[in-house]
Design brief:
Layout (H helix, E strand, L loop, with lengths): L1 E3 L2 E5 L5 E2 L6 H26 L3 H30 L11 H31 L8 E2 L2 E2 L9 H36 L13
Antiparallel strand pairs: 1-2, 2-3, 4-5
Helix pairs in contact: 1-2, 2-3, 3-4
């Protein structure tokens, strides 16, 4: 352990300074739950949109249900975030990377809300037979939006384009996490990992 300007740091095996700050347990659980749902719903959405089989329809329905779960958990996470300041990045962190981190995190929040909403809108607006989705007896109601391709088409285009943006952002996020862990070794990734028993 060492102190610098009133802040206490620990030293890892590479003698890099590691801020002791961590995300709260609630934030960690929400982060990994949302991450798991996002990583599972992307292939389900692709499969459901690519094939016309009963299995593909089932995958689409699961994709929709997961999307609603992502939306709900994200709203909880936003509420939690407003009342709990996240740990600060290391003081010597690259200013450009600091801006990129803030912008990418803000974009994540936007996508995690807008993507499910655009999919929900699309499912509610399609002019053909609509397939209900949800969790057992808990069916998700359709949004009171205009029905027809003039409404569903733009929602579909938004959903697909934002999905590609999400895929790129997830890849960037994973690459950044690996960089923090294996190259920078600055302890930033450890702040979001569950504590070892």
């Amino acid at each position: 352990m060492m102190q610098d300007g009133g802040r206490t740091f620990s030293l890892d095996q590479g003698s890099h300074r590691v801020p002791p700050d961590r995300y709260s347990g609630t934030a960690i659980v929400l982060h990994w739950a949302i991450a798991a749902l996002v990583l599972s719903t992307i292939p389900l959405g692709w499969y459901g949109a690519t094939f016309e089989t009963a299995a593909a329809q089932s995958a689409t329905n699961i994709h929709k249900s997961i999307g609603i779960a992502i939306l709900a958990l994200t709203l909880v996470r936003v509420g939690w975030r407003l009342g709990h300041r996240p740990p600060a990045l290391p003081a010597d962190y690259n200013p450009i990377l600091r801006v990129i981190a803030r912008v990418s995190h803000a974009l994540f929040y936007v996508l995690l809300i807008v993507l499910p909403l655009s999919g929900w809108w699309m499912s509610s607006a399609v002019p053909m037979e609509r397939h209900p989705f949800g969790y057992g007896p808990l069916q998700v109601p359709f949004l009171p939006v205009p029905r027809g391709w003039a409404s569903a088409g733009p929602a579909h285009a938004m959903h697909v384009n934002l999905a590609w943006l999400m895929i790129g952002l997830v890849a960037l996020h994973i690459a950044a996490a690996l960089k923090h862990r294996f190259i920078d070794r600055d302890g930033v990734l450890a702040r979001m990992l569950p504590r070892r028993a």
